[in-house]
Amino acid sequence: MSFVIWYGVYPFELWLIALFAFGFFNGSIHHLFVITTAADLGRKHGKRATSTITGIIDGIGSIGNGLCQVFMGVLVEMYGWRYGFLLPVSISVGLTVLPLTRILANERKETKLAKEKIKQANLLE
Questions:
Q1: Are 41 and 33 in contact (CB under 8 A)?
Q2: How far is CA 34 from CA 4, 26, 79, in A?
Q3: Cα–Cα dist 51/55, whole Å
Q4: Cα separation of 116 and 58, whole Å?
Q5: pLDDT of 76-97, one tens digit each?
């Protein structure tokens, strides 16, 4: 949202540097994700599968990126820039929290089972 508010205040070169920095940091995270996922799945399925898995992940990412651009354009035209920033951020946060809650529930269940096993082992002694 600060881009929209401060667009005319700062020089164009500063915006280019900021855009480069954001793209660099975002792109590096994407590449790390693709590499680690492909390497992990490639170990399970063999070396030939690594390139296929990498291609599938990159292809799905490219399709998602293209659809995101269209979706953002429609969203900004219909509701304005405020919702153009708020809606994608809230969707991202929501899609991040959902799997984390499942992981947390599984961890709690495993911890509870481990504590019960320890209690049973102590009672048997």
A1: no
A2: 32, 13, 33
A3: 6
A4: 44
A5: 888 887 887 788 788 888 888 8
C-alpha to C-alpha distance for 88 and 77, rounded to whole angstroms: 15
R_g over Cα of the chain = 22
Helices (H), 7-80: 12-45, 47-79
- Region at 10 (left for phi over 0; alpha for psi -120 to 50; beta for the rest): beta
The overall pTM is greater than 0.85: no
Burial (Cβ within 10 Å: 0-12, 13-18, ≥19) of residue 38: buried
Q: 25: number of CA atoms within 13 Å, CB side?
A: 5
